[in-house]
Amino acid sequence: MADIGVSTEDYVTTVELQRPPNNFLDVGWIGDLADIYEQLDDDPRCRVIVLAAAGKHFCAGANLARRLEPQASEAAGQGRHLYHEAHRLIRAKKPVVAAIHGAAVGAGLGLALLADFRVACEEARFSANFARQGYHPGFGTTCTLLRIVGAQRASWLLYTGERIDGRKALAIGLVDKLVSTADVRSAAQSMAAEIARSGPLAVLATRATLRRSLEVEFIAATHHEFFEQNWLRATDDFREGVKAMNERRLPNFRGR
User: Fold this and answer.
1) Are 149 and 174 in contact (CB under 8 A)?
2) Is the pLDDT of residue 75 over 90?
3) Model-level pTM?
4) Which of these, 134, 159, 124, 133, lies nearest to 145 by C-alpha position?
5) What share of the chain is helix, strand, coil (3-state, %, to 5)?
6) How far apart are alpha carbons 103 and 12 in whole angstroms?
């Protein structure tokens, strides 16, 4: 697939996002990633996936510079399609360990939260920065973030868009292991290799049991997120939020 690398060694498949430096996501790219996950579901050489990234950031979400362009008026269809592709990711069968360096923000955070485990470095930063753009959270974060860090912490992160580093992410359970920046990928691969030593059929069955309700919750969450995002996209606050973030200043929201 374009902009995505795939390599397998000892039952661990490393899937690398290759849109440096920011790895901005879009509908087609998430669809390509879902295609790869589905192919790996049928590949006996792969028992665990490591999701890593080239460049400065794991995934800086969607490209804000394009949010207010004329084609943004077609975002309703794009949003529905993006979440349809995300549904394919949540249905994938193989365990995923995310190797996170740099930023995992917005929809990029949502992508990281779909993994079973997350390895990061202290310099990594995480933010569900939707509300700071005058926007509703998306990519299933209203479901996955609550599951991982609990309702109170998730509510705070979603309301404020607070940016946290790897150390705080570890403290609240958002990441599972903290290592040096240089060791993020190798540590994720080591975790994946540990999983791969277990019986592959048993791991798949156990994962299906543990995540059996997640698919239903995730799909329901994205349907509601899409509805809320659709009307907020037409507000002055959304336009101000995106403009302010592009200009690196505090937004002046007016509640309209």
Assistant:
1) yes
2) no
3) 0.92
4) 159
5) 50, 15, 35
6) 24
Instruction: Kindly state the tokens that stand for 127.
Output: 């933010």
CATH of residue 88's domain is 3.90.226.10
CA dist 152 → 23, 117, 146, 147, 168 (Å):
30, 21, 8, 11, 15
Tell me what percent of the residues of the chain surpass a pLDDT of 70.
93
Give the total number of structural domains in the chain.
1
pLDDT digits (tens, 9 = 90+) for 179-225: 999 999 999 999 999 999 999 999 999 999 999 999 999 999 999 99
Q: Residue 232 domain-assigned?
A: no
* Contact by Cβ (8 Å): 48, 188: no
Distance CA(197)–CA(171), nearest Å, equals 28
Separate counts of helices (H) and strands (E) for the chain:
10, 9
Enumerate residues 6+ apart whose C-beta is below 8 A from 251. 132, 133, 134, 237, 240, 241, 243, 244, 245
- The answer to whether 175 and 118 have CB atoms below 8 angstroms apart is yes
Decide if 115 contacts 148 (C-beta within 8 A): no
Q: Quote the tokens at residue 180.
A: 């040096």
89 pLDDT band, cuts 50/70/90, is very high
Q: Are 70 and 92 in contact (CB under 8 A)?
A: no
| pLDDT over threshold 50, residue 74 | no
Domain ranges, residue 170: 4-183
